[in-house]
Amino acid sequence: MRVVIAPDKFKGSLSAPDVAARLSAGLQSAVADLETTLIPVADGGEGTLDAAVGSGFTRRTATVTGPTGQPVRADFAVRGREAVIEMAAASGLALLPSVIHGGGPDSGTATTATSLGTGELIRAALDLGCRQIILGVGGSANTDGGAGVLQGLGAVFLDKEGNELPGGGAALARLDRIDFSGLDVRLEDARFTLASDVDNPLLGSSGAAAIFGPQKGATPSDVVALDAALANFVSVLAGEIGTRAERAAVAPGAGAAGGVGYIAIAALAAARRPGIDVVLGFTELEQRLAGADLVITGEGSLDEQSLLGKTPMGVARAAARAGIPVIAVCGRSTLSQEQLAEAGFSAVHALTDFESNVEKCMAEAGPLLEELGKHIGVHLPAITARTDTKEIIHV
């Protein structure tokens, strides 16, 4: 018997590779000669890099500029001419000094954080010969419209006096022109994919500043100022590259990652695709399902958001196309049996079924997942036999 294990991370507890490994250990302790194929996956945000490395990409590291200007060591993944960049590794909220020391983002970082390091990571990938680049966005600290990305690729942002602007979204209010003479010429041969489920535009009441700025520490007055600064950025960029800068500002996904989605669409001609579709593509999940008897997927919390294209749904759809039963594992589930059945799951198992204390579940997720894997292994015949019904079974 062969089982494919394709989970996302259990946020706050275990990475996707660790989740897969723990489940596999439990399953194999219960079933002799069981073959398991481990395929860590993600939805295009945090964990995308781990998914790439788990699928044959090589992890590489570069020293780049963090969101507040400090140097950080950021990983990315390379396979031949392909690269996967997880922007949170270079420009993420988790890299803010205040967050590192146990606090949260504030107004100061909300207005000055930059995506410069993400542009530098792209340049590092170009240095290695990569020309097909996937940008996994999410968890960003910046609201700079992706200006930092362009700066990392050689563009220079100038005010009316010809002075170079500092990083961050607020500074864009003083932007007068952009010097593209130093832009990396290798971009002409590169093709970009924006892995994002965010469909917000760049500006306005549903834009990057208004919707995501407060999560990054922006006050109401900061939101107004940042939105105006981003509008000025669009106007100046349109003067440099034409009306595509204005069209990109209203494109779905332009508001992703503090506007990095905008510059990916406007300046890098990126094609936006749902994050889970991108990840399932480079992991070659559908091809690797061939011959499997069962698929196990999951994430930390199965909830309403999971039904909107998150990892478990993407894996479940792939398993359904292959005619293979799929079960879900999670830390906790808030979905009804009807919702889970409609999603295509033959069974669902939550760690809270074994340990009702949620904090303990998070702290001891590894051992609990092994126990859960063993439990699933004992009941494999019952699970794999239930392929013709949508009744959810709890065994």
TrEMBL record:
Q: Which InterPro entries match?
A: Glyc_kinase_flavodox-like_fold, Glycerate_kinase, Glycerate_kinase_RE-like, Glycerate_kinase_sf
Superkingdom, taxonomy of origin:
Bacteria
Q: Which Pfam families match?
A: Gly_kinase
Q: Which GO terms describe its molecular function?
A: kinase activity
Going by the UniProt record, its keywords in alphabetical order are: Kinase, Transferase
**Kinase recorded as keyword:** yes
Phosphoprotein listed as a keyword: no
Q: State the similarity comment.
A: Belongs to the glycerate kinase type-1 family.
Full protein name: Glycerate kinase
Q: Which organism is it from?
A: Pseudarthrobacter humi
